[in-house]
Amino acid sequence: MSGIEAEGLIKRFGSLTAVDRLNFRVDTGEIFGLLGPNGSGKTTTVRLLSCLIAPSGGSARVAGFDIVKEPLRVREAVGVLTENPGIYDRLTALENMEFFAEAYGISNKAERDTRIRELLEFFDLWDRRGNKTGTFSKGMRQKLAIAKAVVHRPEVLFLDEPSSGLDPKSAKDIRDLMEDMSRQEKHTIVLCTHNLEEAERLCSRVMIIRRGVPLATGSVEDLRRKLHGAPELEVRLEETNEKLLKAATKLRGVNAVNVRGGNSLAFDLDDPEAGTPDVVEGLVKAGARVKSVNILRPTLEDAYLELTKEDQA
């Protein structure tokens, strides 16, 4: 079992409760998004689950190991990328990778060398392997930090803002790496990010937390429907009139129709994906000239902003 199970997880710092009774699970091979404003408890949650700090209450198992009773086994099974890259500026990229590979227990030199080269080449750092990392740009340091976090092929990977500071190509490389590790190698990944577009693209499920308290957990589609209802079908016409509007309301599967922006009709359908062809065909038969068709879906950003609006006041 290389997933995560947390039950009633609590962390207090004096009078401050940073994590307040978190309950969630992450399945093996899943990319799970941990979202929330600054100070919401995301980083503390990651530190708890990776055994960098001890919980004040509750329990959790990571990769099948108890975070209280088996912290060493947990640390062996996880890789962590924090906001601080944690690399040594006075060492070269190669020396950093060798140090962390040995620290993670890769004792076979041939295996270690092969893995290090594979990662440095993937991140376009092989030609700079002999340079001290103090001379690296922020993006290069971030790529090296991710490389050292995955050098031992961890069962569970915690990534805190992995694409921060990266150029578009490097950010795409990171997304591709996460997808490969999840789908092909069945690594479990917890992604902490403010990049909601990235979370929506990568995560099968997300948990949004605020002040250490979970606000919502589920798939992006679940959160969309919970907060904003089903997606709408928008059909833009060359012109609208009472006859077309009346015909639109009688089409099969249509619950309601609203006129928007003069010549656009917004349809409430039980299933917009399946119902779109029938709606368009019906409108054309009624004499409409269709200019465009779109299914309007609330984004993860819409759901996130709705749930965390108290923090935006």
Explain this structure.
The protein has 2 domains: 222 residues, P-loop containing nucleotide triphosphate hydrolases (Rossmann fold, 3-Layer(aba) Sandwich); 68 residues, Alpha-Beta Plaits. Helix 3 runs parallel beside helix 5. The two termini are 42 Å apart. The model has no long low-confidence stretch (mean pLDDT 89). The strands form 3 sheets. The protein has a 6-stranded mixed β-sheet, sandwiched between helices. The longest helix has 16 residues. The protein is built from 11 helices and 14 strands. The chain has 313 residues and is an alpha/beta fold.
The count of domains is: 2
Strand order, largest beta sheet? 6-7-8-3-9-10
Q: Could you say which overall geometry the principal axes of the C-alpha atoms support?
A: elongated
Q: What is the architecture of the largest domain at the second tier of CATH?
A: 3-Layer(aba) Sandwich
Distance between the termini: 42 Å
CATH superfamily of the largest domain: P-loop containing nucleotide triphosphate hydrolases
Q: What is the share of helical residues?
A: 25-40%
Count, helices: 11
CATH class of the largest domain: Alpha Beta
Number of strands: 14
CATH topological fold name of the largest domain: Rossmann fold
**β content, as a range?**
25-35%
Which spans have pLDDT < 50 for at least 5 consecutive residues? none
Mean pLDDT: 89
N-to-C series of helices and strands: EEEHEEHEHHHEHEHEEHEHEEHEH
Assign the structural class, choosing from mainly alpha, mainly beta, alpha/beta, alpha+beta, or little secondary structure.
alpha/beta
